[in-house]
Write a structure and sequence with these properties.
Distance between the termini: 63 Å
Radius of gyration: 19 Å
Number of strands: 0
Structural class: mainly alpha
Length: about 110
């Protein structure tokens, strides 16, 4: 059973690391603030969630796993909320998306 748990832990940790790496390439390659924020928010949440699940397999049925579950719930609730709040604040202060034609903007912003 320990070998299976170690293999699953490795798979989840590697998958999480791949998603975080993809997110870092998204931050580097995407053209504007909103697309970069989207790439960071999605891959950060998914990558960290997969890594936490991998750590849960490594921890077994202990108090450490309970703490990791609480961390996972906290990340799943706060990361998308924070990403949305930052995007909304940027839009409110006037940062417009890159490459949007004026006819696609609301009437008051043209």
């Amino acid at each position: 059973m320990s070998l299976i748990a170690d293999i699953l832990a490795g798979v989840f940790l590697a998958a999480g690391a791949v998603f975080v790496l993809i997110g870092s390439f998204g931050l580097w390659r995407l053209p504007d603030f909103y697309t970069r924020l989207h790439a960071a928010g999605i891959t950060d949440t998914l990558g960290l969630s997969l890594m936490l699940v991998g750590m849960m397999f490594m921890g077994g049925w202990t108090l450490v796993t309970v703490k990791l579950v609480f961390m996972l719930l906290l990340i799943l609730l706060t990361s998308p909320t924070a990403t949305h709040a930052v995007a909304n604040a940027a839009y409110t202060v006037g940062l417009r998306p890159f490459g949007v034609p004026p006819e696609d903007l609301p009437e008051k912003e043209r």
